[in-house]
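Let us work through a complete example step by step.
Step 1: write down the sequence.
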Amino acid sequence: MSKDVIVLLEILENEHVYSLNKLKLKLEQYNLHLTEQQIISLIVQTLYESICYLQMNKKNNEKSMYKCFKYLNAGNNTKYLETVEIVEKLNKTIEKITKKIDNTQSNLNNIVRQNINFLLTIKDNLELTIIQIGIPVIEKNNNLDDKDRIESTLYYFIFKQQKYNYVSEIFKTFPELVNFKNHCDKYLLDDVITEYLKCLNYPSNFEELYYEKIIDLFLKNDKLKMTKGYKNLIINRLQLAKQELRQNEFSKRKNKRIRFFLNDAIEHIKQFEIIDKEQFLSNINYRYGIQDTYNSKYYDRFIKQKIINRDHNILDLTSRYTFTVDNDNTKSYDDAFSLIKNNDGNYELDIYISDLTNYIKTNSKLDELAYKKGATIYLPDYTLTMLPHSLTYTNCSLVKNTTRNVIAHRFLLSKNLDIISFDIQKAIIKINDNFSYQDVKDIFNTNDIAKIKTMSTIIDIANHIKRNNFYNMDYHYIKKLKKQYLIPNEKLLEKYQNSHTNFVDVLMILTNYFTSDIISKLNIPFIYRVNTSNVDLKLIDQIKEIKEIKEEEMSKQILECINNIYNPSYYSPYNLGHNGLDLSSYCHITVPIRNYASLLSQRLECKYLIDNKYISDKQIYEDENKIKEVVNYVNDRIFYNDEYCIEYKQKIKQIK
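Step 2: predict the structure and record it as tokens.
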């Protein structure tokens, strides 16, 4: 051991010194004149060398090493730990501990076992120290880099490591983190509850008990704050989970224990005081007719069980490899994909949309409530879903390892990736994977040849469609640019900017176009998405040139050019085409979970194109009138929802 380390060990062994200043004076008696930073570095070096010289088959003096942590974990000393050298030394100490434990697994006498337990404790303490270094102080801190670092640290230890002791220490040291929101302004607690509810579908006792303890950490933290809407949201999710316990196959004892936990959590949440924000928002909720929760009495009547329709006319495609691709924060999945190559070299590309027709019956109470909302509303704090969470996130969502009813939009493509034919059928699928866009990128760094071929071919298909100018991509550029100038610094803008650069959106546009094209040619009642923009390529080039100058006074000139090009899209019972995309017809058939116009379009798609039942003139007339009513209402509702979002955000800023 080095001389300085030996001196420090002697001081720690014989003295009860826990103040850094007092330790500094003690070291000076040995002619060691060190700064506070140097003393902390010496303590870390002492830990490392002590582990190196630790003899597993002999009794060791553990007292000095435990004392080292008194200094490392002291709140005032954390600032001295935030150097690359110290973090590297701590990580090396952890590696050394791991090697020592691995090297003694074959020789486990009592002394070795004691030393292994001691080393595991030291390892835990070291990892917790690194965690504390990794989480900066976040009070009144809007630094995005720090927030990203906090988010990645929290999500790693809560959802991947799943070590309760670590998470507990994090919240003891940083209690304000219970109110942490991720980069999408979604509460951390909401994601914890989501993971817990997923566990209730599988007989995994460890994860289930682990997340119950984590939820307790949140609910018993004095720093936790809730709005009325968020409070009701959590209560309704837990109440729904309690009702769904009747459907699982767990033992009565386990069901009773889970029900007890849910009841206790619900009662605990009910005691929370509402923060002032709700007083500001209740008035605008009333004015805009916003209802943020579903009355629980509708759950028992309309969502009694998972409905899987296995009619003989429904294709069974459960054997096909099927996956979804969405943003990282997505919890509800509307669409999925599968791709196979036939013996003749042609490709079958299936685009699946969740089939809601078994759940949302026409003119039912649930249908009326969805119609009243018109669409899902995305707010900074949380999401006001059009449908109950049971349908949005579970029963109708195309979640991994579940079997679901879908509407399959089936494309047959040639070897050259040209579209040969298109068909629509009902099907049953099993979802194998839920990918994020980053996951798709990561697939190409693996050895999974089958997945690489599938992804690369689908991306090639999307790129082939774009190269053939299937639709006008400049429309999305102008639409994005207008949002940028009308809503500067909008947090959702980054997500929006990225949403039209991936292959998923190309395939969604393809599906919407081919479906609407078939229906328009058959002259069937339907809801079209129409647009009357004047996409002038010269003006677009002019905007790009002006934008490159990057002068603030040019913003008005850009906005004027945009207004000469861009008109917002809207729903119509008549096919007026979509000028923005340069398509002869267009619809929104791919988002029935989030949009009522899409939900009704799916019903019409099934009724007229799939079911093959006799339809009288009277029914057609009734559908036409229904569509006109829905179109007028949904267009207005979406406008008011947008106005509500703007006012909501303004109120939030005032409160903050």
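Step 3: interpret the result. The longest helix spans residues 617-655.
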